[in-house]
Amino acid sequence: MTTEKPTMIEFRDVQKYYGDYHALRGITATIRAGEFFSLLGPSGCGKTTLLRTIAGFEDISSGAVLIDGKHMDGVPANKRPTNMVFQSYAIFPHLTVAENVGFGLRRDPRPASEKAKAVAEALEMVGLKGYGARAAHALSGGQRQRVALARALILKPKVLLLDEPLSALDKKMREQMQMELIKLQRQVGITFILVTHDQEEALVMSDRIAVMFEGQIAQLADPETLYRRPNSRQVADFIGTMNFLPAKILSENGVVEVEAQGFGRLTLAADQVMGSKTTEGTSIGFRPETATILFDGQVATDRETLATIEEVVYYGDMTYYDVRLDGTEKPMRLSMRNVFGRPVLDIGTRTRVGWSPGALVLFR
Amino acid sequence: MDKGNSRGRFRDTEAAKGLMLVSPTALYATLLLAAPLFAVVVYSLMIDSKTGASAGFTFNNYIEVWTGKIYQAIMLRSLIVSMTVTLITVLLAYPVAYFVSFGVSQQRKALWLFLITIPFWTSYLIRVFMWKVILGYNGVINSGLMSLGIIDEPLTVINYSVGSMVATLAHAYAPFAILPIFVSLEKIDRSLLEAGQDLGESKFLTFWRVTLPLSMPGVIAAVLIVFIPTIGDYVTPELIGGGKIPMIANMIEVKMLKQNDKAMGSAIAVTAMVIVAAVSVLFLLLNKRFLKGQSK
């Protein structure tokens, strides 16, 4: 997953002000060629602004944006080797599907018949074969999305920019399009940059993700690292669910000795310790699936702690248990895969919880 | 089952409620618009009516209107004046509408629209007189040029001419053209313009390929709103043209009131109406083409 590829996009200390509002606060990052890269963050974090600085719709106040090694300062949107799929899709309502897809081919020197062939191929690639003559306004949301994709990809850009392209689709359609986009990206090999606020979407689709808060990149990593080793409580909270328990550092020299509520004395490796900017104080974090409820006769693979079940949420394939470990104040969420023949436990049940120190993260 | 019952049911239907709602207006329109119109059509088909229309049916009035040199000339002049006015008004209104829509911040737009409507605060007649003050024989332009010694005699080309009529009308109808164009520009999704540039077109070509076609419904509405009233304008030729260069409405007035020839007056009126209707239908069809695909 991390074979080094050449750099496609480089941000050098990019700053953006809107009047007094500091929208981008020193973004420095590189995006590699052929990568599926996501900008993930809550609304207002600057991810769309950052995407628009690549497209050329947003001037930057200072710093530099480079595409394929070239400075983009002063280069207008129509001269950049990027194309965009807009959140609203921006399909031209006065044109047919084929005219929309062929919009950017006007200056292409090829004869009209070859352009028409290229349009037909692009439509086929996105699964809209034979839709060329249709009026753009007669399309469904998913079809508009595909037209927007075909319209951008037909120009063979170096970078395809996707601004929350799936947010207007229903859940089923969204999941289907996620898979199609991944396949399409592998097929064409173009660098895709996706803006999304949906952490699940980012995890599913991306090679690497930049998590942004308040105009800054909080963490830039591959999905697995982001999920297992979030570098702050903020990132941990934003990506999936994480349980936190207060903790106290006893000593550190290479490894870290910790006293954590509910878990007792622990020794953690250096890579499990994350510097956190939060003011909540030192805490231990773990994901719901890294601790398990031990049913009768099951033996813990590592450690175990006694707990009381306080809430049960049944999801069909999964059951979420909110359990309070003995010696703690807050319930922790555990997710258990349901197994045929095993009962769902009731609220108030006393149970044993199995966990492993290796799955814990310390935020300080 | 019985009659009373079904009538009761009819009274409750949407259609009945709709009819009830429109009936006062419909009645009003019939009495004040359709009935006089019908009377005009009837008059236009009557024989000699110098002493009030007498009974008898003929197409001679129409034949005279369509073949008579003077009628043709006046009709043609009306068409040329109103088409020139329409062209100039729309061409000048578009940049103003574009500026207000794209160049003015959201909070200031209302103020700009308000400013555009200010000319309406004075009566049309007064505005026409003001133009007469500017363009007239002893008007501001002539006396100004003469006092500067640029000309010795008042220019006659700027007063009592078709040109001065066009200037006056174009000024008067500018807001009518600006507003519909502004509305159609406001409706354009701004991301479409970004998409145009993103797909490699310059700002100008994006305007040409995206903004302009999408604003055509507004342009066509402006054309109709300016063209229809100006072709039948009566006051401007009378005051600015000094009655020397009549348009079709002045001709109708002369026939109807001065010569008391109701039949001929009516025939001219109906003819003018048919021509306006034909031109309007043409533009409506054009509009349909542009509106296609913009049902959103």
UniProtKB/TrEMBL annotation, chain A:
One of its GO terms (biological process) is putrescine transport. Gene3D superfamilies: 2.40.50.100, P-loop containing nucleotide triphosphate hydrolases. Keywords: ATP-binding, Cell membrane, Membrane, Nucleotide-binding, Translocase, Transport. It catalyses: ATP + H2O + polyamine-[polyamine-binding protein]Side 1 = ADP + phosphate + polyamineSide 2 + [polyamine-binding protein]Side 1. GO terms for molecular function: ABC-type polyamine transporter activity; ATP binding; ATP hydrolysis activity. NCBIfam families: potA. Part of the ABC transporter complex PotABCD involved in spermidine/putrescine import. Responsible for energy coupling to the transport system. Belongs to the ABC transporter superfamily. Spermidine/putrescine importer (TC 3.A.1.11.1) family. The complex is composed of two ATP-binding proteins (PotA), two transmembrane proteins (PotB and PotC) and a solute-binding protein (PotD). PANTHER family: SPERMIDINE/PUTRESCINE IMPORT ATP-BINDING PROTEIN POTA, SPERMIDINE_PUTRESCINE IMPORT ATP-BINDING PROTEIN POTA. This is Spermidine/putrescine import ATP-binding protein PotA. It comes from Gemmobacter aquatilis. The gene is potA.
From TrEMBL, chain B:
The keyword Cell membrane applies. GO terms for biological process: transmembrane transport. The chain crosses the membrane at residues 26-46, 79-104, 110-126, 133-151, 157-185, 206-228, 263-286. It holds the Pfam family BPD_transp_1. It is found in: Cell membrane. Gene3D superfamilies: MetI-like. It is a multi-pass membrane protein. Keywords: Cell membrane, Membrane, Transmembrane, Transmembrane helix, Transport. Residues 75-285 form the ABC transmembrane type-1 domain. Its main location: membrane. InterPro entries: MetI-like, MetI-like_sf. GO terms for cellular component: plasma membrane. Belongs to the binding-protein-dependent transport system permease family. CysTW subfamily. PANTHER family: INNER MEMBRANE ABC TRANSPORTER PERMEASE PROTEIN YDCU-RELATED, INNER MEMBRANE ABC TRANSPORTER PERMEASE PROTEIN YDCU-RELATED-RELATED. This is Spermidine/putrescine transport system permease protein.
